[in-house]
Each structure stands twice: as C-alpha cells, then as structure tokens.
Design brief:
alpha+beta; SH3 type barrels
C-alpha cells in the first residue's frame, strides 16, 4: 500500500532539477515536483501536494489536505490504542502463565 502524506510546497530549491521544499506537518523536506509540474515551477509555492517517497504525486486542495492529515492522525491514535491493547493482552497472558 502506498501512503501519500499532505505537504505544502514552501520554496523552490533547485529549478533545473525540479526540486522544492515541502512542509509536511512541520517537517521540511526536499521533494521532486516533476510529477505534478504542468506550468511554471514558481506557481507551486503555497500549493498542497500528496508526498510519497520524496515525490509530489498529486496536487490537492487545502480542505483535502486537512481531512487527510486528520484521518492520518486518527489512524495513529487507533494504532496506539491497538498496540496498548496488545500489550495488555500480553501482560495478562504472562500473569496467567506465572500463576499456573
């Protein structure tokens, strides 16, 4: 499964290589904008993109970016809850084994 994380293009870092700086939830990383470049590279500044393994894969609007970030946050919380439940089950199993 591929997972794209929304990031906002904040700066062009190397026009000749089609590279830009994207802010992904407060973390800035350089990404290739070649897959989404349809006009002037400068037009991408301020736009939101789905970022996957260092590439801007699609331009999305701000509302879609916010909804995706919220869903990813919720998934993270769900994963943490599942891990906590698994740890609890493991602790219960160990306690049962020790009493036997």
């Amino acid at each position: 499964m591929c997972l794209g994380i929304p990031g906002q293009i904040v700066e062009i870092t190397d026009e000749s290589r089609m590279m830009a700086l994207a802010d992904v939830s407060g973390v800035k990383r350089e990404v290739s904008v070649a897959p989404v470049l349809t006009g002037s590279i400068e037009e991408l500044i301020g736009k939101w993109a789905l970022i996957h393994v260092g590439f801007a894969m699609a331009i999305i609007d701000e509302e879609e970016a916010a909804a995706t970030l919220e869903a990813l946050h919720d998934l993270g919380e769900a994963q943490e809850a599942l891990e906590a439940m698994a740890e609890g089950d493991k602790a219960l199993a160990q306690g049962t084994e020790e009493r036997a």
